[in-house]
Design goal:
Dihydrofolate Reductase, subunit A; homodimer; 5 helices; two-stranded antiparallel sheet; alpha/beta; about 190 residues
């Protein structure tokens, strides 16, 4: 299973403030910039490249809290699995959207492969760090908002080993967001 | 005084491992990449744009520990001030290179301006964070090595307020380092 990350952070590497808020992300950047060339900063193209999604519980709760309408739902009809050792059922507004999983992520990937899935979108800081520690992330796209939060929940948690990144790419968008891409080399 | 940052970090934002080591920085990236177009990733051009340097004690101690020969010394004959509330004299191998300062950084900048300096290079994580909290950093160039350390000493410490960044630029070098530049907007 190819596992890819597509996530936004602050310029200092946080995915949320310490209380979980992401409003800074929506207000960051130059609102008057001409984004006609790439209005979604590649998100649609990324979504078209994956066929399933694995996210952590906190990530799911953030999405649930947004109470998105069907028109606002960003993940299409992709198969979504939420990792949790505590919750066995999803929140009411996501019950038709996600499936809960508790257990080993290697087993989960095998299960998904047996169902015919090949390209997973991995989301959420804890989940991404866990996948990195299992040498399971193949590539990462990180979109950094032009703001320093000065504290919060970091994208990357503690890693068991240093991890080498290769095939770097970078682009600064007109709205001052900077997007970087890496492939991960565990050798 | 225009205050600029030029610093290297890991891809997850650390300037050193938890014990202060920076060897990962020198071994990071593709050693076989053709860097003929920009062998120093802009460091020489940056040095040519500043006329003085302010760094923290830990930063100085890291440099002192490298025991650089005159040929290896990267800062030319620029005027260097080291901030410390504990040390009053520099290490023996830097005694002709740096001057110690204890006190308020706003006073230091006035003092340097009175001596005719206009463009300061601000170095070291604690010092940069302190300058940001005093709204004194004008622009930042951050060169991210293609490695996740998974822990260490972060570039950015805790900030008193969120800080907006503007005029983003980004480049991925052939060796897989990614350099980003921002101007800082405190309004």
């Amino acid at each position: 299973m190819k596992c890819s990350v597509y996530i936004a952070t602050s310029a200092d590497g946080y995915i949320a403030t310490i209380d979980g808020a992401v409003d800074w992300l929506h207000s960051a950047g130059n609102p008057e910039a001409d984004m006609v060339e790439n209005p979604d900063m590649g998100f649609g193209a990324f979504m078209a490249s994956v066929d399933c999604m694995i996210m952590g519980r906190k990530c799911m709760e953030t999405i649930s809290g947004m109470n998105l309408s069907p028109e606002q739902w960003p993940y299409g009809d992709i198969h979504i699995v939420v990792l949790s050792n505590t919750l066995t059922t999803p929140p009411e507004n996501l019950k038709d959207k996600v499936e809960m999983f508790s257990g080993d992520i290697v087993d989960l990937l095998k299960e998904l492969e047996n169902k015919g899935f090949n390209q997973a979108y991995i989301d959420g800081g804890t989940t991404i760090t866990s996948f990195l520690n299992h040498s399971l992330i193949d590539e990462m796209t990180i979109t950094r908002a032009p703001v320093l939060l000065g504290g919060g929940i970091p994208l990357f948690g503690q890693l068991d080993n240093q991890i080498k990144l290769v095939n770097s790419e970078a682009v600064a968008f007109p709205n001052d967001f900077i997007q970087v891409k890496y492939k991960v080399n565990y050798l």
